[in-house]
Amino acid sequence: MSDKMHLKLTVNGEAHETLAEPRELLIHVLREQLGITGPHIGCETSHCGACTVDMGGKSVKACTVFAAQAQGAEITTVEGLGAPDGLHVLQEMFREHHGLQCGFCTPGMITRAWRLLQDNPSPTEEEVRFGMSGNLCRCTGYQNIVKAILAAADQMNAMKEAAE
Amino acid sequence: MIPSTFEYHRPDDLAAVIALLQEHGDEARVVAGGHSLIPMMKLRMADPAHLIDLQGLSDLKGIEIGDVIRIGAMTTQAEIIDHDGLAEAAPIMAEAARQIADPQVRNLGTVGGNIANGDPGNDMPGLMQCLDARFTLVGPDGTREVAARDFYEAAYVTTREEEEVLTAVSFDRPRGGYAYEKQKRKIGDYATAAAAVQIVAEGGRVSAASVAMTNLSDVPVFSAAAGAALEGTACGEEAVQAAVAAMLGDIDPMEDNRGPVEFKKHVAGVILARAIVRAWSRA
Ligand SMILES: Cc1cc2nc3c(=O)[nH]c(=O)nc-3n(C[C@H](O)[C@H](O)[C@H](O)COP(=O)(O)OP(=O)(O)OC[C@H]3O[C@@H](n4cnc5c(N)ncnc54)[C@H](O)[C@@H]3O)c2cc1C
Ligand code: FES
Ligand code: FES
Known about the structure:
The complex is a heterodimer.
Chain A: E1 5-11, E2 14-20, H1 26-33, E3 52-55, E4 58-61, E5 74-76, H2 89-96, H3 106-119, H4 125-131, H5 143-163
Parallel strand pairs in A: 1-5
Antiparallel strand pairs in A: 1-2, 3-4, 3-5
Helix pairs in contact in A: 2-5
Chain B: E1 7-9, H1 14-24, E2 28-31, H2 37-42, E3 50-53, E4 63-65, E5 68-72, H3 77-82, H4 84-89, H5 91-97, H6 103-108, H7 111-117, H8 123-130, E6 134-139, E7 142-147, H9 148-151, E8 152-154, E9 157-158, E10 165-172, E11 177-183, E12 193-202, E13 205-214, E14 221-222, H10 224-230, H11 237-248, H12 261-282
Parallel strand pairs in B: 1-3, 2-3
Antiparallel strand pairs in B: 4-5, 5-10, 6-7, 6-10, 8-9, 11-12, 12-13, 13-14
Helix pairs in contact in B: 10-11, 11-12
The structure holds flavin-adenine dinucleotide and FE2/S2 (inorganic) cluster (2 copies).
C-alpha cells in the first residue's frame, strides 16, 4: 500500500479535506468519501460521461482522474447547480421536455450541458450535439435531451436580458 | 478498476522531472492528460511505481504561430480547437482534433501525450507525418530534435529514451489545401482509417502533396508514393485512384474488432479519396 495523501478539494464552493491513496479515482473520492453521489459511475472506462464533473472550469470524466491529480482543484457537481426546492433552469427543462427516462445519465448530462452553455450561451442544435458527444444515454434517444438544452439556453438568455 | 499503487510526484520544473526519471528508470512514467495512461493502468497493462505529473510545468503549454508553428506538449486537444491563430495558420490541426474522442477527453488529453503514447490508433502521430513535424525531446544529456517520420518504431515503441520528455512539436506553416478525414464506428472512437492530406496547387496542377494514414499499420504511415502520384496532375479521378493505389502499398492493417483486412483497405481507400478531394477543393 502506498501512503495516503492529504487531499484538499473545493467542491460546490465548500472546502473539503480527506485522506486518499493517489491511485483512487476522483469519482470514488467524491462518492464514497465526501458523500457527493450526484456524479454516477456508468462504465468506469472513460466512455459514458455519467461521472462528468466540472474541474477548474472544464468538463471532465471523474472516473479518469486520479485523486492525486485533482489535488487543490475546484470542482462543481450537479449538486452545486440546483437543489430540490430550487431547480436550475437546465433541470427544469430536462423535466419539462422529458430529457430523461431512467435518469442515470442525467447528472452527467446536466453538468456537461451547464459548462457547454457557459462556453457557448446560444448554441445551434449541431453545436449541442457535438458538445454533448461525451455523454451517452441508453434511454431517450437524445432528441429530448437536445431539446431541453436548447430550451434552457433560450431561458437563460432571456433571464440575462431581463436582468440587464 | 483499481490500478496498482504508485507514488505520486508533481514537480514544477523540467529538471526535477528528468531527475525523477533518472532516479526511478523504468519504474517511472510521466502522466500528461492521463487519458491513455489511466485506462491502461486500470487494466493493469501499465503499473508504474512512480507517476510523475506534468501538470505543474506551465512552460510546456502554449501555441506559437510564426513561419514555424510550435505547440507545447501539454497543450490540450481542446486548446488546439479553440485557438484562433492556429485555425488560420494550420486549420488541419483543429479539423483533426475535433475528431479525437469527445469534449471531456479533449479537455485533458494533450498533444504531447497523444504523440508520445505510440498507440497506432492515436490521430496526432499521422497528422505529424503529413506536416513533417519535428519533436523536441529533453533528457539528461540535453535537447534534441527528432523528425516525426523517424519517431515511431512499432506499436508503443518510439525513439524517445525513457529519461526524455517530449516538450514541444513544431512544423513549418502548412501551405495549400488540407483535410483530415476519419472513419470511426461511433463518435469518440479511434479510427478504422484516417487520412491527413495537404495539397499545394499551382496553375491548376498539384505542385506538392503530403499524405499520411492512421491506424492502418503498427505505426503511422507517411505515404510518399501517394503524394508523388498526385504531383503534376490536375487532381482528377484518375490521379486520386493512383494515389489510393500507392497508399494501399504502404499500409499493413491487421484484423481486429474494427474489421478484417480487406474491409480496412477498402475504408482506407474511400477515406483517402475523400480527403484528397476535400483538400484539393481548398487548395
Ligand atoms: C474514450 C476515449 C476515446 C479516445 N479517442 C481517441 C481518438 O479517437 N483519437 C486519439 O488520437 N486518441 C483518442 N483517445 C486518447 C486521448 O486522445 C489521450 O488523451 C491521448 O492519447 C494521450 O494524451 P494524454 O495527455 O492523455 O497522455 P497520457 O495518458 O498522460 O500519456 C500517454 C503516454 O504518453 C506518455 N507521455 C505523455 N506526455 C509525455 C511527454 N510530454 N513526454 C514523454 N512522454 C509523455 C505517458 O507516459 C504515457 O505513456 C481517447 C481516449 C479516451 C479515454
Ligand atoms: S463512468 Fe466515467 S465515463 Fe463512464
Ligand atoms: S435516461 Fe436512462 S441512460 Fe439516459
